[in-house]
Design goal:
With about 190 residues, the protein is α/β, with parallel strands linked by helices. Helices cover about 25% and strands about 20% of the residues. The protein is built from five helices and seven strands; from the N terminus they run βαββαβαβαββα. The strands form two sheets. The chain has a five-stranded parallel sheet with strand order 3-2-4-1-5, sandwiched between helices. It has a two-stranded parallel ribbon with strand order 6-7. About 20% of the residues are buried. The model is unreliable at about 180-190 (pLDDT under 50).
Amino acid sequence: MIHFVGAGPGAPDLITVRGQRLLQEADQVIYAGSLVNPELLKLTKEGCRIYNSAVMTLEEVLFQMQEGEEKGWMTVRLHTGDPSLYGAVREQMDRLDELGISYDSCPGVSLRLAVRPRRWNLEYTLPDVSQSVVITRMEGRNPCAGKGKSTLLCRASVHYGVFLSAGLLKELEAERSGRRICSGNSGSHRL
Protein backbone atom coordinates (compact mmCIF):
# COMPACT_ATOMS: atom_id res chain seq x y z
CA MET A 1 0.00 0.00 0.00
CA ILE A 2 1.08 3.55 -0.75
CA HIS A 3 0.48 6.07 2.03
CA PHE A 4 0.43 9.73 0.97
CA VAL A 5 1.53 11.55 4.12
CA GLY A 6 1.52 15.27 4.82
CA ALA A 7 4.77 16.32 6.49
CA GLY A 8 3.28 19.41 8.06
CA PRO A 9 4.58 22.98 7.88
CA GLY A 10 8.25 22.18 8.36
CA ALA A 11 9.04 21.58 12.01
CA PRO A 12 9.54 17.84 12.63
CA ASP A 13 7.35 17.94 15.73
CA LEU A 14 4.36 19.24 13.75
CA ILE A 15 3.79 16.05 11.75
CA THR A 16 0.67 14.16 12.84
CA VAL A 17 0.99 11.15 15.12
CA ARG A 18 -0.34 8.93 12.31
CA GLY A 19 2.16 10.40 9.84
CA GLN A 20 5.00 9.77 12.29
CA ARG A 21 3.89 6.17 12.79
CA LEU A 22 3.71 5.55 9.05
CA LEU A 23 7.23 6.96 8.59
CA GLN A 24 8.52 4.70 11.34
CA GLU A 25 6.98 1.61 9.70
CA ALA A 26 7.83 2.41 6.06
CA ASP A 27 10.05 0.15 3.98
CA GLN A 28 10.58 2.99 1.52
CA VAL A 29 9.94 6.73 1.61
CA ILE A 30 9.69 8.93 -1.46
CA TYR A 31 9.83 12.50 -0.18
CA ALA A 32 9.51 15.92 -1.79
CA GLY A 33 13.12 16.91 -1.17
CA SER A 34 12.75 20.52 -2.23
CA LEU A 35 9.98 21.09 0.32
CA VAL A 36 10.08 18.52 3.14
CA ASN A 37 12.31 18.99 6.17
CA PRO A 38 14.94 16.21 5.94
CA GLU A 39 14.90 15.90 9.74
CA LEU A 40 11.69 13.89 9.33
CA LEU A 41 13.67 11.16 7.59
CA LYS A 42 15.38 10.41 10.91
CA LEU A 43 12.09 8.81 11.98
CA THR A 44 12.52 5.98 9.47
CA LYS A 45 13.67 2.54 10.52
CA GLU A 46 17.09 1.14 9.71
CA GLY A 47 17.20 -0.19 6.16
CA CYS A 48 14.37 2.01 4.89
CA ARG A 49 14.96 3.03 1.28
CA ILE A 50 14.76 6.81 0.86
CA TYR A 51 14.23 8.57 -2.48
CA ASN A 52 14.21 12.31 -3.14
CA SER A 53 11.44 13.03 -5.66
CA ALA A 54 12.87 16.51 -6.37
CA VAL A 55 15.40 14.81 -8.65
CA MET A 56 12.97 12.24 -10.05
CA THR A 57 10.41 12.29 -12.83
CA LEU A 58 6.83 11.22 -12.21
CA GLU A 59 7.62 7.99 -14.06
CA GLU A 60 10.55 7.28 -11.74
CA VAL A 61 8.41 7.92 -8.66
CA LEU A 62 5.73 5.57 -9.97
CA PHE A 63 8.34 2.94 -10.81
CA GLN A 64 9.58 2.98 -7.19
CA MET A 65 6.02 2.72 -5.91
CA GLN A 66 5.25 -0.19 -8.22
CA GLU A 67 8.48 -1.98 -7.36
CA GLY A 68 7.69 -1.56 -3.66
CA GLU A 69 4.26 -3.06 -4.17
CA GLU A 70 5.69 -6.03 -6.04
CA LYS A 71 8.12 -6.67 -3.16
CA GLY A 72 5.46 -6.27 -0.48
CA TRP A 73 6.96 -3.06 0.93
CA MET A 74 5.03 -0.37 2.71
CA THR A 75 5.67 2.92 0.90
CA VAL A 76 5.25 6.45 2.24
CA ARG A 77 4.96 9.23 -0.32
CA LEU A 78 5.90 12.20 1.89
CA HIS A 79 4.58 15.55 0.74
CA THR A 80 4.82 18.94 2.40
CA GLY A 81 2.03 20.45 4.51
CA ASP A 82 -1.28 18.81 3.77
CA PRO A 83 -1.22 17.01 0.40
CA SER A 84 -4.81 18.04 -0.30
CA LEU A 85 -3.67 21.67 -0.72
CA TYR A 86 -1.48 22.16 -3.79
CA GLY A 87 0.00 18.72 -3.18
CA ALA A 88 0.05 17.51 -6.81
CA VAL A 89 -1.12 14.09 -5.62
CA ARG A 90 -4.05 13.62 -8.00
CA GLU A 91 -1.86 12.73 -10.98
CA GLN A 92 -0.06 10.13 -8.87
CA MET A 93 -3.33 8.69 -7.56
CA ASP A 94 -4.78 8.51 -11.08
CA ARG A 95 -1.76 6.54 -12.25
CA LEU A 96 -1.91 4.24 -9.21
CA ASP A 97 -5.57 3.59 -10.03
CA GLU A 98 -4.53 2.60 -13.57
CA LEU A 99 -1.90 0.24 -12.12
CA GLY A 100 -4.35 -1.26 -9.61
CA ILE A 101 -2.23 -0.17 -6.63
CA SER A 102 -4.10 0.80 -3.47
CA TYR A 103 -3.31 3.94 -1.52
CA ASP A 104 -4.62 6.14 1.24
CA SER A 105 -3.98 9.64 2.46
CA CYS A 106 -2.81 10.88 5.84
CA PRO A 107 -3.52 14.60 6.11
CA GLY A 108 -0.85 16.90 7.41
CA VAL A 109 -0.93 20.08 9.42
CA SER A 110 -1.25 22.77 6.80
CA LEU A 111 0.87 25.89 6.96
CA ARG A 112 -2.37 27.86 7.03
CA LEU A 113 -3.15 26.33 10.41
CA ALA A 114 0.30 26.35 11.94
CA VAL A 115 2.13 29.57 11.24
CA ARG A 116 -0.11 32.55 11.79
CA PRO A 117 -1.81 31.51 15.03
CA ARG A 118 1.39 30.08 16.52
CA ARG A 119 3.85 32.73 15.43
CA TRP A 120 1.78 35.84 16.10
CA ASN A 121 -0.76 34.49 18.59
CA LEU A 122 -3.62 35.62 16.38
CA GLU A 123 -6.95 34.23 15.29
CA TYR A 124 -7.97 33.95 11.67
CA THR A 125 -11.54 34.98 12.34
CA LEU A 126 -12.76 37.72 14.64
CA PRO A 127 -16.12 39.49 14.84
CA ASP A 128 -16.10 42.74 12.82
CA VAL A 129 -12.67 41.88 11.35
CA SER A 130 -12.78 38.69 9.34
CA GLN A 131 -15.22 35.83 9.11
CA SER A 132 -13.57 34.04 6.18
CA VAL A 133 -10.20 32.67 5.13
CA VAL A 134 -9.40 32.23 1.44
CA ILE A 135 -6.60 29.95 0.33
CA THR A 136 -5.26 30.92 -3.05
CA ARG A 137 -2.08 31.25 -5.07
CA MET A 138 -0.67 33.65 -7.56
CA GLU A 139 -0.82 32.68 -11.18
CA GLY A 140 2.62 31.43 -12.11
CA ARG A 141 3.85 28.43 -14.07
CA ASN A 142 0.37 26.93 -13.88
CA PRO A 143 -2.66 29.08 -14.66
CA CYS A 144 -5.31 29.54 -11.98
CA ALA A 145 -8.82 28.26 -12.57
CA GLY A 146 -11.64 30.63 -13.39
CA LYS A 147 -10.59 34.19 -14.09
CA GLY A 148 -7.01 33.38 -13.06
CA LYS A 149 -6.40 36.16 -10.59
CA SER A 150 -6.34 35.73 -6.84
CA THR A 151 -7.45 39.32 -6.37
CA LEU A 152 -10.83 38.68 -7.94
CA LEU A 153 -11.84 36.94 -4.72
CA CYS A 154 -11.48 40.08 -2.61
CA ARG A 155 -14.03 40.80 0.09
CA ALA A 156 -13.92 43.27 2.93
CA SER A 157 -13.75 40.76 5.78
CA VAL A 158 -11.49 38.07 4.38
CA HIS A 159 -7.99 36.96 5.31
CA TYR A 160 -5.88 35.45 2.53
CA GLY A 161 -3.43 32.59 2.62
CA VAL A 162 -1.34 32.92 -0.55
CA PHE A 163 0.46 29.63 -1.25
CA LEU A 164 3.18 28.69 -3.72
CA SER A 165 4.00 32.30 -4.44
CA ALA A 166 7.34 33.06 -2.77
CA GLY A 167 8.90 33.63 -6.19
CA LEU A 168 6.11 36.04 -7.13
CA LEU A 169 6.32 38.49 -4.24
CA LYS A 170 6.85 41.51 -6.49
CA GLU A 171 3.73 40.66 -8.47
CA LEU A 172 1.74 40.11 -5.28
CA GLU A 173 2.94 43.44 -3.89
CA ALA A 174 1.99 45.19 -7.16
CA GLU A 175 -1.52 43.76 -6.90
CA ARG A 176 -1.70 44.61 -3.22
CA SER A 177 -0.48 48.17 -3.35
CA GLY A 178 -1.50 49.65 -6.65
CA ARG A 179 -4.84 48.41 -7.81
CA ARG A 180 -8.31 48.93 -6.59
CA ILE A 181 -9.54 45.39 -6.81
CA CYS A 182 -13.05 45.15 -5.47
CA SER A 183 -15.96 47.22 -4.40
CA GLY A 184 -19.31 46.64 -2.86
CA ASN A 185 -21.51 47.76 0.01
CA SER A 186 -18.50 48.08 2.27
CA GLY A 187 -16.54 50.31 -0.11
CA SER A 188 -13.38 49.69 -2.09
CA HIS A 189 -10.46 47.75 -0.75
CA ARG A 190 -6.88 47.08 -1.62
CA LEU A 191 -5.14 43.80 -0.95
